[in-house]
Amino acid sequence: MTLLSARNIGVVRGHTTLLADVSVDFGASEAVAVIGPNGSGKSTLLKVLAGIEAPSSGEVRLNDHVPARLSGAARAKLIGYLPQQFQPHWDLSVSELVRLGAERTGPAAESEIERAIAEFELTPFRRRRWSTLSGGERARTLLATVLSIDPPLLLADEPAASLDIRHRIAVSRALARRGKVKLSIVVMHDLELAFQLFDRIVLMNEGRIVADGPTSEVVHDERLDDVFGVRFARVQRDGAACLQVASVKQDSRSVN
Amino acid sequence: MKPWLTLAVYLVAVLAIAACAGHDWATPSELLRAAAGDDSMRSRLLVEWRMPRVLAAALVGALLGIGGAVFQGVFRNPLAEPYLLGSAGGAGLGAAIALLVPFGVPQWLLLPLLAFAGAWGATATVVVVSRIAGAVDAAGLLLAGVAIAAILSAMRSFLMLALSDETVNLQVVLSWTLGGIQTPTWLGLGMLLAVAAGCLALTLALARGLDLLGLGETMATSFGLDVRHFIALAVLAGSVVVAAAVAYGGLVAFVGLASPHIARWLVGPLHRPLLPASALVGAIVVTLADALARSALPPAEIPLGLITAVAGGPFFIVLLAQRLRS
Questions:
Q1: pTM, two decimal places
Q2: Chain B residues within an 8 Å CB radius of A141
Q3: CA-wise closest residue to A155 among A24, A57, A64
Q4: For B2-325, which CATH superfamily applies?
Q5: Homologous superfamily of the A2-221 domain (CATH)
Q6: Among candidates A52, A97, A103 on the partner chain, residue whose Cβ is nearest the Cβ of B221
Q7: ipTM metric
Q8: Does residue A17 contact residue A10 with C-beta atoms inside 8 Å?
Q9: How far apart are the first and last CA of chain A?
Q10: Nearest Cβ partner of B222 from A50, A96, A103?
Q11: pLDDT digits over A136-192, tens only?
């Protein structure tokens, strides 16, 4: 059953085309990784799907709604969004942040806030202020803040990019696991984790979707090599194919 | 509970000290006798002149505290304040026009209206200029504010030179510029109290939006806030608060900067507790500064704005240094 669909989405800012004629459908429970080189339009697609940015053309539908036309509260109830970078301007405590997240759709019970804090193992830090948290604690706080209301759709923009490997795996795994019951669309920079943890891969390049399908199929798609400008070796690990960089292609893409 | 109790105790103590202070100091027992309805000349002077003045100072301080907290929240900038952003300067220019230009409209109506128009116009201009220049950081916003404030100050001085004659009291305009609490009647004080309470209620309604804005514009949008609409609304509300403060107390520097900072140390950065706490801190600071203004150099009165500038300037410099270092 389709939960979220984008039809012929185009985003033009000034003279730059960020997205061109993107159409894609997502089911109600899927773990989708969106991959692609820098500037391929991943973040813009995510913002358009979240209703944060209005497309120049085309339409996004979430069930029967157009996210960008929903009231702020209604949109917040349906869509959770984890930004690429998050730095609150005021030095809020963990519980204050989670409360702001939980109350975005209306008053929240203390027990709901405590549940979100406990779920992400933040109980010992609940009174600590943002400036005193480590990178991993910050990432978990952000997850608890956004997921405190458990929306049907979660869009995450490389939320683990700046974390060390252990926390990166933990956060990516939590997001992928959520796709078993809800829709979880995550922009991933780490290709190894993307192919290891997610069920479906959307490959983007220059504002378009180049490939879209089950991970087991996309992993063999040669367009991956072209888009990233690298030659990948497909190696078998735990019964599934995964990518390994074999060599860097010498083409116009190479950085001088 | 503890920070509120501390603030309340300090405010009561400061109000009592300020009511005693003056070029002719009163004793606490004289104050109590006057409050109990004693009919002597001295008691009546205390009740009719000093007490309304002290309470007006507290309320102007509360308005400045609220205005500072709103502007720091809207601009997500701990260095923002009505005086530095040009809002107070805009209100001052509005007030000067109301006092100097004979429009044939009653001044009690014209002055607050023009003060509001000036505060709003100046703040909105700063927002637009800093957005066009792409300067969303602390320094860019403040520089835009300083430029606007300088233009407004020049315009005000020009008006004062060009339009003042024997019929217009230049002293009144000048006292606005330097900051100073007008001694109100008890009825006027009641109105000021109503205005301050209204401003607090108005800005408390914006508290949740200010908190969300503090998470960054993208996050705030994803949490359901219409960011542009909200900023426009909050600038409007902040301008009402600043216009009210300027109409009753002239241009008083740095109270709007320092009060939210002190309040944040006491109650944290969420705006629902921050706004009333900042109002209380502002009330304490201005009551003290006004008492000093009335009693330091008798029989002269030092302009209130000079005292807050001398005390608040170093505070600003310390904050600026901290921010630049981080």
A1: 0.88
A2: none
A3: A24
A4: ABC transporter involved in vitamin B12 uptake, BtuC (1.10.3470.10)
A5: P-loop containing nucleotide triphosphate hydrolases (3.40.50.300)
A6: A52
A7: 0.86
A8: yes
A9: 47
A10: A50
A11: 889 889 999 999 988 999 999 988 777 888 888 888 998 999 999 999 999 998 999
